[in-house]
Amino acid sequence: MKYHFSRDLCDSDRAQLNRALDFFNITAYFKTVDGQEELFGFGAQQEADVPNKLNGTMIFGGYPFDQQVVENSKLMNGIWFVPIIFVKITQNIVIFESDTVENFNEWLTKFKTIARSKVVSHVITSELDWTSRTQKLINTIISNDKLKKVVFGRQHQYALSDTLLASTLVHALITQKNTYHVILKYQKEMFVSATPERLVKVTDGAVTTAAVAGTIRRGNTQTEDKLLGDMLLNSHKNQQEHRYVVNSIYQKIQNMTTSLNLPPQPILLQNRQLQHLYTPISARLIKKYTVLDIVNALHPTPALGGVPQKQALDYIRAHERSPRGLFAAPIGYYTSNNSGEFVVGIRSMYINHAAHTATLFAGAGIVSDSNATQEYQETNLKLEPMRQLLKGDVNDN
Length: 397
Ligand SMILES: C=C(O[C@H]1C=CC=C(C(=O)O)[C@@H]1O)C(=O)O
What we know:
Layout: E1 3-8, H1 13-23, E2 26-31, E3 37-48, E4 58-62, E5 79-90, E6 93-98, H2 104-108, E7 121-126, H3 130-143, E8 149-160, H4 166-172, E9 181-186, E10 189-193, E11 198-203, E12 206-217, H5 222-233, H6 236-253, E13 257-261, E14 267-270, E15 274-285, H7 291-298, E16 306-307, H8 309-319, E17 330-335, E18 340-344, E19 348-352, E20 357-366, H9 372-391
Antiparallel strand pairs: 1-6, 2-3, 2-9, 3-5, 4-5, 4-17, 5-6, 7-8, 8-16, 8-20, 9-10, 10-19, 11-12, 11-18, 12-15, 13-15, 14-15, 17-18, 19-20
Helix pairs in contact: 1-4, 3-9
Bound molecules: ligand ISC.
């Protein structure tokens, strides 16, 4: 971009940058799981429904989960844009780039006021029959010798009393530790995620991805937490669910990479409500491939779709109540020098301010020895991060 500027981060910068997210029609916010990088995209100098129509040094966006169309939505069917202003915070430095805005400090002063939206919500639809439909799925997997795993999703919709500001949500996301914080906003639509799951990161040819699948709740005490973690590590059902993901990632990227490194056993990945089985995977990208080639090859992993992929996706399309849109889909950014990072949009919600609704999403990996009631409870916990955001729960614990 034409104008570059960087300086030490000031105390007020974050609040002002968050507030600037409210003022543009198209924005993106992406905070890495370790909190080391925060990226902001403000306004679109180019936008498209697919990334290959765009040309820019920095591109934000998301693909939809599959070809199913979400009615009355632009955002949920995939949106990509080259920002007018790109800002990155890393190691207490703020970096600014733009083709049209010359003076960062002057620009930032426009976003002085702190506004907090307090929005009241109540449930309008929830899938009360999800457990019985999941039992049917378990029976199908048992009796079908092809279908092994399906990640079965549910949607839970709230009516909103008012507009939820992106700045309020970014602030509230602070409570969701050890997760990425992602917001994509398009006009009156917003997609928000506190996902623990990176799909892929590429920097200087180094590829890092991970299998995240197999879940148990956090304990109320340290002892209980450790006990639950050990139960998860020793659970045959969860190990099986996890192994499908590891094997699939391996198969999907082995021809696009070299030096593929895959630990033999998963470890635990813990966030506020849940612990998961987690296998970090690294490799070197073969030069002719791009970040998006890897994204397209990996998506959907069996942590979001299932095994075998085609049969699982057919099942999801036929039996989930509504199309997923950006739920469980790749969202992130990439640059013209073939770096980038994509996460999967889980622990997420879709806000439609034209309809005054927020739709929360959760899914669970169903295999032959799943228990439908336990999976329902697991999805309740997976809805919890976004429920807390809706409640305006910003207590740091
Ligand atoms: C589909 C979701 O989680 C996936 C990612 C991690 C663990 C999962 C599981 O244990 O079922 C799911 O595969 C969700 O959170 O909505």
